[in-house]
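Quick entry, no commentary yet.
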Amino acid sequence: MSVRAVQRAVQLAGPGDWSLLNGWLPTLLAILGLASLLWLLIARRRTWWLRWLPIVLVLSAGLAWLITVWVDDWWQPFPDGLPTTSAVWIGVCVLAVVLFLFRLPFLRWRGRALAVVACVLAVAFAGNQVNKEFQQYPTLDTLPGPWQTPPPELAIGDKEPVLTVPAGKTVAEVWHKPAGLPDKGALATAKIPGTTSGFNARDAIIWLPPAYKAKQRPLLPVVVLMPGEPGSPEDWVGAGQLETTMNNFAASHQGLAPIVVVVDPLGGLTNNTLCMDSNIAKVQTYLAKDVPQWISHNLQVGSGRKAWTIAGLSFGGTCSLQLAVNAPDVYGSFLDMSGQDEPTLGSHSKTVDVAFGGNEAAFDAVNPLSVMAHKKFPDTAGVLLAGTNDGTYGPQQQKVFAACQAAGMNVSFVQVPGGHDWDVWKTGLDREMPWIAKQDGLIS
């Protein structure tokens, strides 16, 4: 691409497309944020340096420590604890706010207005440093706010005549793209009730490929996709760029692609259900019975375990392995991205005590590595994927990979550049979608 073309592309891109991860905006934010923090830190008064600043620093450190304890010991969104770098940047946010509050009484109204701006810039800078670690919000448009328009509710239409696929053939081999088919797929939301499990999940997000709009409808395979923890199905639409990945795949396969149903295995942002049937919730039943039954009843989709893939990232990756092992009659393949080697609430003992009343045998009966130690899965295929710089979950994925091989699964271990972040997961889904489509009988 020429320099002129690049300049034109930049001009056409609106503010919502500006990157929060690379380029001029995060650089400018870093400069302004650090300058603002320095401005809040420095004052002319001698009493500020001798009396107030030491109090600010001690108070900020204490509050940051309390937040870390709250996250690691109560909320526990990260089984291995809050990443150190994230804890540091949270501390910077706290410092900026405490500095602002202590400086405010000593400033005149103009100085107070400037202090507000400085505090906002410093917090925005530190917050974006955490964002850069996980790459949750790649652009301004992906930030949560009133500008986010949720997908419409799924309209359950009439059944269409079905495209017949002879035995031994893939859907692509008998499919001919009809005239007037949409160029892109469509997103929708739907409430998938926990009819059998009793689990109260948040709304699922469904992506229907262009081929689903055909008057002679192919029975497309299904990918049940899950977010991490903390997280929600919407994460795959924003940070995960699900539409881009799936529309690109459909465009290169005459409108064919798997149907993707992004489900909620958590029931809330701060929940950790372990994705098991336990004292906490019956999430395994929800994902193994309620979800596939609802999809099969409301959508025209492929039947049989070969047409169904379970996939997810981090917590959702661990969950995908759990369903592949504990519900192999439902899901014939899985994609585990950056998952753990064992479902956990923070420690093995706490997990067993809270979820199973201290019953180790009950936990072992559904823990994937324990199950695979005495049961073979020769008809299950999977991909275990991790970032090259993921020093925590990468080794755990390698341990799981070895266990899957020993259990007779047809598995591969894949690494992509990055850490434990969305750049790895959206790249991973895009990279493995052709494998999923082949595994599910969509393409050859």
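second:
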Amino acid sequence: MGLRNLPTDVARTLTSLIDDAEPGRISSCSLTRLSDACQITLLSFAAGESVSDEEYPADTMYYLLEGCASITFAQEGRAPVPLAAGEVFLVPAGVRHAVEPAGAIKLLQLSL
């Protein structure tokens, strides 16, 4: 495993490493080479876009870089968890969940 798509000439903010998503799209930028052990991905959601329920075989950390969002759960009765810029949340392996932005967002997802 190794890292990629990171600056090596000058320091930059994480948000500058991915462009704002075009309307109707979600953009992604992998920061790791292909690996089953660890995946680090920057995501940019256009306003109105979301990710449907997903389940990962590894623990998944979400760090919201810009905007506001909620992590919702397929498990009945589990309340959504709101996220504001600068906040982090962990979803354990095997838990079905979705990312529901409130407008355009940028998000760092780390699974290991």
